Amino acid sequence: MRIGDLAARTGVSVRSLRYYEEQGMLASTRTGSGQRTYGVDAVDRVRLVQQLFAAGLPSRTIVQLLPCVDAGVATPESFALLVQERDRITAQLAELTAARDRLDEVIHISEHPTPEHCPTLRTGRPSPDAVVAA
Q1: Is the residue at 16 inside a domain?
Q2: If you write DSSP's letter for every residue of the chain in order, what string do you get?
Q3: Which of 5, 51, 110, 111 has its CA at a distance of 20 to 30 angstroms from the CA of residue 69?
Q4: What is the SS3 assignment for 61-90?
Q5: Closest to 79 measured CA to CA, from 68, 93, 90
Q6: What is the model's pTM?
């Protein structure tokens, strides 16, 4: 099948398919005129790559894992790589949770201002830095 057909069957852009091929995640053959063609197994490969991307794995990690997937063998290295990626994602989740919690605090203060957080409530008049809307 041609690249446009593969894109249509997988819902992935032609540009992404070219990127997958450049990175070594997808293989094609070329016609005499240089057009890419893919076997029917390419649909499953693209779906697998998409699942790995959706799991938060970067392309360099996917490239490292695909030979193990192709061989049907889990190596200690591939297992360690997956654990490392999981730990990276867990750390990102912790950072995002902390950022959300800080934002919740700001929202709460905005909804329920107190003199501690709002200079105007301490003095009863706007601070010199306050912007007055016209």
Answers
A1: yes
A2: -BHHHHHHHHT--HHHHHHHHHHTSS--EE-TT--EE--THHHHHHHHHHHHHHTT--HHHHHHHHHHHHHT---HHHHHHHHHHHHHHHHHHHHHHHHHHHHHHHHHHHHS--TTT-HHHHHSS--TTPPPP-
A3: 5
A4: HHHHHHHHHHHCCCCHHHHHHHHHHHHHHH
A5: 68
A6: 0.69
- Selection from 45, 50, 52, 48 nearest residue 89 by Cα: 52
User: Has residue 119 got a pLDDT over 60?
Assistant: yes
**Tokens standing for 7?**
């894109």
Residue 4 — pLDDT band, cuts 50, 70, 90?
very high
Say how many residues make up the chain: 134
In single-letter form, the type of residue at position 48 comes to L
Looking at the structure of the chain, the number of domains it has is: 1
In a domain, 114, yes or no: no
